[in-house]
Design a protein that fits this description.
By secondary structure, the protein is mostly beta strands. It is 9% helix and 56% strand. It has a single domain, classed as Porin, CATH 2.40.160.10. The two termini are 24 Å apart.
C-alpha cells in the first residue's frame, strides 16, 4: 500500500484538504453542467506482521508493525452537457502517479435504456458496485480481494473497457426492476497489453418495496492464457444479494460462487457476507454509525481447508456531511489458502489482523 512518506502522496493530501477547507456545507464545486469532486481516505494502522512471516518473507520482523497509509486520493469530474448525455472521468493519486479509474460516457434517451461506453466497473457484485469510499467498514474483504474483484484477467467485478445497456422498468404491483447487460474486452486494466478477454455480465435488481432490493448477477469470462498464446479458457461466476434499509438501519447479505481464475481449471470459490450499520443522529451535522461485517469464504474448494471466517467492525463519527472519522478492527481467524499453478502447490494468502484510525474527507 502507498505510504504518506511518498512526496506525491503528500501533495495529493494537501490538494484535497485545501479543497475541503474551502468547501461549503453543500457540494460547492459545481458550475452549470460541470461537477468536480475530491475524496481522501487516510489511515494510521497497526497490523500483525506474523502473518507475513508465515508466508516465508524473512525480512519481516516479529510482532506488530504500524504505518500511515494513504488508501485513496481521488479526483473526478462529471460533465452533463445535455439531459441525455453524461461524461465522467475519475483519477487516483494515492500511488504517487496519476492513474485513470473511470473514463466513460453515458447516453440516456429513456430511463429504460441507458448506454454506457468506456472504462468502468462490471455490475456483478453489489458490494463491488458500491464506492469503496462509502463503505461503513475499512475493506470489502477476502472474497472481493482474491476472487471477485482482484483476480487475474480483470476479475468478475473489476473495472474494464466495455459497453453496457442498463435501465429501470416499472412492473405491476409497484415493483421496480433495474437491469444491466454488457460486454467487456480488455486485460483488467485501462490500456493494458495483456492477452485478450471478453466478459459477458448480466445483473437484475428488483425493488420489492421501499427499502428492500433483491439482486442477481452472472459473469461469463472468456480469455487466453498469456503464457500459452491461443489457448482459450472459459470461467463463470454467479451471485445474489439482498439489501434492506429501514430508517437508520442498513443491512446487506450477499453470496457468490464461481470458478477461481487464479488457480486454474477445476477450482471454485464460494463465500458470502453479512454487512450492517446503524446511524445515530447526535444533533446538527454530527452522527455516530457503528458498523460490522461477517464474512465466510472458501477461496478454493480443491484445497483441504475449512471455510475462513473474517470479522470487521468500525465505529464511524460523521461531522459535517463531508468528513468521517472511523476507529476499526479487521481480521481473519485463520489465513486462507488457494492453489497456485506457478508453484504447483497450495499457498497461503495474507489477511492480517489490523486495527486503526482513519479519516475520510469528501467534497
Amino acid at each position: 500500500m502507498p505510504r504518506l512518506s511518498n512526496a506525491r502522496g503528500l501533495i495529493a493530501c494537501a490538494v484535497l484538504l485545501g479543497l475541503g477547507a474551502g468547501a461549503a456545507p453543500a457540494l460547492a464545486w459545481e458550475w452549470n453542467d460541470l461537477r468536480l469532486r475530491g475524496r481522501l481516505q487516510g489511515r494510521y494502522e497497526a497490523f500483525d506482521r506474523r502473518v507475513e512471516e508465515e508466508l516465508g518473507r524473512a525480512y519481516v520482523l516479529e510482532g506488530w508493525g504500524h504505518h500511515l497509509d494513504l488508501r485513496r486520493a481521488r479526483l473526478d469530474a462529471r460533465w452533463t452537457p445535455f439531459a441525455w448525455l453524461r461524461l465522467e472521468l475519475e483519477t487516483e493519486l494515492a500511488g504517487g502517479d496519476l492513474e485513470l479509474r473511470d473514463v466513460f460516457a453515458e447516453l440516456t434517451p429513456h430511463e429504460a435504456a441507458r448506454l454506457t461506453v468506456g472504462n468502468f466497473k462490471k455490475p456483478f457484485s453489489r458490494l463491488g458496485m458500491d464506492a469503496a469510499f462509502e463503505l461503513p467498514v475499512p475493506e470489502r474483504g477476502l472474497l472481493h480481494e482474491y476472487a471477485v474483484g482482484g483476480s487475474a484477467y480483470g476479475g468478475f467485478g473489476g473495472r474494464d473497457l466495455g459497453v453496457m445497456l442498463s435501465g429501470k422498468v416499472a412492473l405491476p404491483a409497484k415493483l421496480k426492476l433495474r437491469y444491466y447487460l454488457g460486454v467487456w474486452n480488455s486485460a483488467g486494466e485501462l490500456l493494458d497489453d495483456g492477452p485478450p478477454q471478453h466478459d459477458y455480465v448480466a445483473r437484475l435488481q428488483l425493488k420489492v418495496w421501499k427499502g428492500l432490493v433483491i439482486g442477481l448477477g452472472a459473469c461469463h469470462k472468456v480469455f487466453e492464457l498469456g503464457e500459452l498464446d491461443g489457448l482459450q479458457r472459459t470461467t463463470n461466476a454467479f451471485g445474489g444479494d439482498i439489501r434492506f434499509r429501514r430508517g437508520d438501519l442498513w443491512l446487506q447479505l450477499e453470496v457468490s460462487y464461481g470458478d477461481r481464475v487464479d488457480s486454474g481449471p477445476g477450482h471454485r470459490f464460494l463465500g458470502g457476507h453479512l454487512l450492517g450499520s446503524y446511524r445515530v443522529e447526535l444533533g446538527g451535522d454530527w452522527a455516530l454509525e457503528p458498523a460490522a461485517m461477517l464474512e465466510v469464504v472458501d477461496l478454493d474448494d480443491q484445497v483441504e481447508d475449512d471455510p475462513r471466517v473474517r470479522l470487521s467492525g468500525q465505529l464511524n463519527l460523521h461531522f459535517t456531511r463531508h468528513v468521517r472519522l472511523g476507529l476499526y478492527a479487521d481480521g481473519a481467524f485463520s489465513q486462507p489458502r488457494a492453489y497456485d499453478p506457478g508453484q504447483l502447490a497450495a499457498v497461503q494468502l495474507a489477511w492480517p489482523l489490523r486495527v486503526g484510525l482513519e479519516l475520510r474527507v469528501g467534497i
